[in-house]
Amino acid sequence: MKIKEINTMTYDTDEDHTPTQAKHADRLGSASSSDLERVVINKTAVREILDQAKAQGRTSLTAPEGKLVCDAYGIAVPGEGLAKSAADAVALAQGMGFPVVLKIISPEILHKTEAGGVLVGLRSAAEVEQGYATIMANAAKHDPHASLLGVQVQQMIGGGQEVIIGAVTDPSFGKLVAFGLGGVLVEVLKDITFRLAPLNREEALSMLDGIQAAEVLKGVRGAEPVDREALAAMLRSVSQLISDFPEISEMDLNPVFASASGALAADVRIVVDFAPQPERYRPSQDDILRQMNRIMRPDAVAVIGASAEDGKIGNSVMKNLINGGYEGKIYPIHPRAEEIMGRKAYKSVLDVPGGIDVAVFAIPAKFVAQALIEVGKKKIPGAVLIPSGFAETGNVEGQQEIVRIGRQYDVRLMGPNIYGFYYTPKNLCATFCTAYDVKGKAALSSQSGGIGMAIIGFSRSAKMGVSAIVGLGNKSDIDEDDLLTFFEQDDNTEIIAQHFEDLKDGRSFAEVARRVSKKKPIVVLKAGRTSLGARAASSHTGALAGNDKIYEDVFKQAGVIRARSLRDLLEYARGIPKLPVPKGENVVIITGAGGSGVLLSDACVDNELSLMTMPEDLDAAFRKFIPPFGAAGNPVDITGGEPPATYANTIRLGLEDARIHSIILGYWHTIITPPMTFAKLVIEVKEEMKAKGIEKPIVASLAGDVEVEQAAEYLYQHGVPAYAYSTEIPVAVLGAKYKWARGAGLI
Amino acid sequence: MKIKEINTMTYDTDEDHTPTQAKHADRLGSASSSDLERVVINKTAVREILDQAKAQGRTSLTAPEGKLVCDAYGIAVPGEGLAKSAADAVALAQGMGFPVVLKIISPEILHKTEAGGVLVGLRSAAEVEQGYATIMANAAKHDPHASLLGVQVQQMIGGGQEVIIGAVTDPSFGKLVAFGLGGVLVEVLKDITFRLAPLNREEALSMLDGIQAAEVLKGVRGAEPVDREALAAMLRSVSQLISDFPEISEMDLNPVFASASGALAADVRIVVDFAPQPERYRPSQDDILRQMNRIMRPDAVAVIGASAEDGKIGNSVMKNLINGGYEGKIYPIHPRAEEIMGRKAYKSVLDVPGGIDVAVFAIPAKFVAQALIEVGKKKIPGAVLIPSGFAETGNVEGQQEIVRIGRQYDVRLMGPNIYGFYYTPKNLCATFCTAYDVKGKAALSSQSGGIGMAIIGFSRSAKMGVSAIVGLGNKSDIDEDDLLTFFEQDDNTEIIAQHFEDLKDGRSFAEVARRVSKKKPIVVLKAGRTSLGARAASSHTGALAGNDKIYEDVFKQAGVIRARSLRDLLEYARGIPKLPVPKGENVVIITGAGGSGVLLSDACVDNELSLMTMPEDLDAAFRKFIPPFGAAGNPVDITGGEPPATYANTIRLGLEDARIHSIILGYWHTIITPPMTFAKLVIEVKEEMKAKGIEKPIVASLAGDVEVEQAAEYLYQHGVPAYAYSTEIPVAVLGAKYKWARGAGLI
Lengths: 747, 747
Fold this sequence. Notes:
The structure is a homodimer.
Chain A: H1 20-28, H2 43-55, H3 63-72, E1 80-83, H4 86-96, E2 100-105, E3 118-122, H5 125-142, E4 150-155, E5 161-170, E6 174-181, H6 184-187, E7 192-196, H7 201-208, H8 228-244, E8 248-259, E9 262-265, E10 268-272, H9 285-296, E11 300-304, H10 313-323, E12 329-333, E13 339-340, E14 343-344, E15 358-361, H11 365-377, E16 382-385, H12 396-409, E17 412-414, E18 420-423, E19 428-431, E20 439-446, H13 449-461, E21 466-471, H14 480-488, E22 495-500, H15 506-516, E23 522-526, H16 531-541, H17 548-557, E24 561-562, H18 566-575, E25 586-591, H19 594-606, E26 610-611, H20 616-623, E27 636-637, H21 644-656, E28 662-668, H22 675-691, E29 698-703, H23 707-717, E30 722-724, H24 728-743
Parallel strand pairs in A: 11-12, 11-15, 15-16, 16-17, 20-21, 20-22, 22-23, 23-24, 25-26, 25-27, 25-28, 28-29, 29-30
Antiparallel strand pairs in A: 1-4, 2-3, 2-4, 5-6, 5-8, 6-7, 8-9, 8-10, 13-14, 18-19, 18-21
């Protein structure tokens, strides 16, 4: 089958073998039939081959079976056939695509080449027609007595760029398609890229650009560029195949010869696994929302294990709820107490007269199961399981038991082994940690308690307003994607920042993140991203840390911004909501220190920001405000000794001119324009422009003596992320905003 | 010539064509004849070829000339020769190395292959002997009348790994050797590495490991590993050739076929440039020291342009000198004043009765030249040129003039266009910026004034003790390497941190840095490291910013630690001197938060630190102190709810056991072990061990509420670099210490 034809064919939909994986994938909205080009698929053929392999207890398909599977999904493999006439040969060649090889078929002719019985590289119908005649004539001349059965027509392989197309089944992400260049690039440099299957056309094409050596496909050293659509079509066919048939656990097309005229898989390897994958329990998005809204924004909270005794977790939780200013009902649950901290206590949640939205557990692990049954019977939608002593200490059975109970009674579980959570719009501190009260728009979560404490400390210190801080711990049930679903519709949240070491269900995370990231930025810190780190992760939680490259690519595919460090996560959470959405890619640096300009330019490249090429008229306009020896172009170097007016004039121009989309400021401390003077003028100009309806992202780097710290804080509090003694952090924050805006399709 | 033989030959030293470059290189100590393997070199042959090219006005050598040059330096190119007998053929083949190709030579035989006159891939003397006979017999049979002149023996190329060996002349670094793999790896991925020529054996071998795809050379996909010594020898021969003949400006051996049995350069390209390179003025190291010691530690300072008027630069300089507590003599120079700030003023330095060590210029650019002549006549060894208005504003001639004057009178020039400098051991603030007084061991410098101000602000804010802060500005004369030479022998300095955008003389910098970095860590922030950044650099200073990869590799070759950001430069300068030198590579993480442990492990990998594989007995010893569910191995996860004793016991064990060389602490804020309790116990244990003679690097990451900031500061002030809310910065500081210690050969 000629690869080009795939685009004109249609997927066969007259049967429904669609398995869970594929249905699940449909929810991703990534490869609906409407946006797929039309390809004929023969599912029945594949089903028969797989059934046979299953019946025979095999774990892989044979080479001919692999070829048939490829044929059924329009994956081009080298074609071949026997021609008994020149017309036959031409038809065969046209069917499989040029170039072709012709070989004489005759029992008497063993050394075909010597007999003039082989022609390679025939590139047209005319050449094939002529070639057929030549070969027959040569053979007849070579051995007049030989019986000439005809000519074998084989599609020629090789000559293009060798690439690898593969598929794997990841325990967290499910079906993934892989793409790389053949040879050392994949094997030595690990230059490979992954996407969740199935793929739409854009995703498939993005894989070709997703490798370091992408330029090779565009043609280097005199080579023609490869047929990108053909490669993309093959990637999509593979992705559809593995989505349709989850029992295909691994697949390798290696090598695939990609050329200007198509792509041809020279070798096929298919590994099968008929053991059904255990499915994760996934309520519908509506059910998640219904329960999460009650859990996160409760009107009534029960504290199981509430205590009047200082130093007890149940006492800290009570104090935090009451002193934090929570205005809903608080029900202490205690086996004997009549009253705790002025609130009537109950022996069980079942004794509480009114409804309860969430139960916070502050009792030892061994008592959790029984109390959870009572929570279930009371129809409380959520349990916040602070206690440790479950899977993280080896008590896997204990954790499985509470998960079973939760499922049975429809109680969503947060934790166990967590610090609890904060939801500031409700003044809710359902945690044993210190209370937190700086309200704002950032929702943060952490898998680890230690990182949770770092979030709290940083947030308080940096005056980062937060809407929520949530501990997820062992993630026996409630996972990052449940939080995304809640924060998506939470008007108090504008950015979501998550720390985690693994994703229990990476596919669900990606599915939800892809939708949510269109509306609100999602920043993640994936710990255990290096192999050593991954080892530590598995000793910590027993979780299987995935291949980091898979996380990397899936995050990109889902529009998720990845932080490289804890500080980056925190700075992005703090800074991104301060910035308006940029309207385009043109960034301009305005700096009083040439040296800062150079470092800020470096940081722009590091953070994938585009320094605008300054148009002549705009350059001239800037020059009017700066000394004659100030540097031209971008950075706009206003030089060091300038008065406040020079900063004000150039910043105003930068905001006013519609061709500029974002501004990076480099300030240099001088007596002529002291730090707070600079900070105030920046905010003045910003407000002046805002009144005219102009809002652009502005970030600032301040170089100077210690007074610049106060100026940076003033700027930050007024909407300009600003940093003293750093040229890289402000640009990284702007870069993160851009990454999100691009992913969300806003620029 | 067979590549293996190179190692057994000797460099010819009976002539001295050694040019400046090579002599200069000798000072690097990198390729003395004693450590070079013995290779016969024929300089006369190369000289003749170059003389001819020069006479003919050519800019490149012909292919045959290139081959002769290679021959003269033992660089293997494919050999060939005519054999008139089987014995001839064997001798030729043995001389050039197997495998070989044999071809019949006969005017009558045009189609050699058809005549059976070609044999390829002959791998032994026996095969060649036999092959000679076969070819002669075939040819005679093919055409009995042909005159058979003999058999051409050609060394076979191909079949190995294609690599590229090249040489370039960099305006700053001079002669550099380049190495990369052939094909897309160099062209698309820019996977290439550079070293200063000439190379010693270790440096040449390090180039093979200096590329991303280094593994390829060790044999992948069933290939044999290449002959590393042969490649290293070829790299060294090229490096010696270009050092011996500076007129060879560029050279390409591309491709070189590297195999298990040697390396063969299939194609040679040599570009020549006979215009002599202008030499930079370089005093001897002794002269530099003599002058720099007086400039940096003066007993008498003149302020040219001293002023009593607030707001004048000459006033700020006077105030800083006096209020900073400088105890040497201060001579204000002013055309009219009798006295300035209580000090007798002079019209000219020539009027000052005593000697003067340094003159600080605080006058407009146009008056500098005349005053500098007087400084010269007064035999003052150094001028600190604060004024701007020279090359940075386009006044290149003005700058050339003062350089000429400086040279004429032997006055070293700092600047122009700088903030001046601080040298705290002398309480010397020879600058118009704010005074600085936190004494310590870090010497910092910056090319840019803005970055200088950031250094001052950060240092003050972080209580980083400094010995010196120096502005270098336009670097008309005094350069980074002059500062290195001074700080090397300055007992008040333990670490040198430099920001720069270019190096006027990269070769001198590398030469000095290589020596100094053995004694004291050198950290650099090279701005303009990205192409966008480089563009901004050139618009800022008019300096040619070099290819960043060259800087990267030369820094490594010279043992210089490269900071990736301004904050990193500052944090390294602050943290590295706090840490003792580690005695080995075994790093152990001790953490109260498993989540921090994972992130700290990630950071170890990012910073090239080795997490020690925990020996069983040590693991058992740690386990005695931690709860049964604490994680085994490394990180040592003591878990979150532990009392101070658990931290103290595990840290003590970590310090006591000689197999552990460095410790990374992860603290998690709890009520049981509050932040300051933790901080104090760490220092107590550290001091207890120090009393026993045990000192190891310890760094700490603190996760918790805002109190951890105070604890981090306490730790830092007591010798443990500690950071709140960051897992990456403390590990990066430790990693930088290790990079230095490795480069200096201390571990």
